[in-house]
Amino acid sequence: MTLATGVGSMPGDDTRAYVEAVRLTLGELPDLAFVPELPGRGVIANMTGRALAIVDGIGVDLQRAGWRLTDASGIDHRRARSLLAQDLDQVEEQAQDYDGAFKAQVTGPWTLAATVEKPRGDKVLSDHGARRDLAQALAEGVRGHVADLRRRLPSVERLIIQVDEPMLPAVLEARVPTASGFGRHRTVHPPEASAALEIVLAAITDAGAEPWVHSCAPGVPWQLVVDAGARGLSVDHAVLGAKDFDALAQALDDGLVVALGVVPSTDPVAVPSEKALTEQVLRWLDMLGLDPAEAREHLVITPSCGLAGASPDWGRRALSLSRDVASHL
Predict the structure, then answer these.
(1) Which CATH number belongs to the domain containing residue 320 in this structure?
(2) Looking at the 3D structure of the chain, how many domains does it have?
(3) What is the rounded CA–CA span in Å between residue 13 and residue 36?
(4) What percentage of residues in the chain have a pLDDT greater than 70?
(5) What is the DSSP letter of 57?
């Protein structure tokens, strides 16, 4: 059976919207719901703030330029942790009878390194030791996060942790700007990129969850991601090129999950039909040379990316469309 889920972010900017987002994901996605993220609530709720709420063993504070490593946690770091705990309280309360697969998301080590600053400024990305320490702190935090989710959702057997890495291609291609804005950080070579990912993905596996990696960016080295230990690849169909096909076809052949984003993530001018989206998926499988009857067990249908920029109505419709397309497959 082909499943459907969301990427992670949802529209909304307050507590009431979060409660509704939890209800929506549990209702529309009974086989693979997820912990919603509402970045519209501010920096403590965006993908960087959310991940820093999980990291263990390092202090962080919110400065004018953004999140920065510090000797001790600042008030905004504590607020991010408190908000995450409140959100998980909502998930726990509303998912008492839920027994399907369940997914949570966390920002990956390279996107964090490209967005968080060192104590004296400039990105963590510029320092070999700092980026290694951040990856290790994230891995330890994820272990505790998985344990917390297991405690809150005792009926869930299949727990998935999706590692979001939208900045990975930019890190590998030296496209991350320095603090001055006039230069670019040096490229991170594939072996080091793989090693940091492996630290986090291995922690997820060791904690008893299933590691996926998601990116909506073009140019993701999917084979590197698989070699680092990912058991699922979450991709945006619209940005895939011919060079991605071999890695994704091999992943499906090897029994890995591919979550294919085909439903628009923002309100479209013309709403695509279930039939048109289903045919789009089938054409893609045909281009990969795969039999839909065999591939569908490892295929998951999602919106093309997060739904934070969608209207509430489209956020609901995008999840229901994803579910309907999955059912047709």
Answers:
(1) 3.20.20.210
(2) 1
(3) 12
(4) 100
(5) S
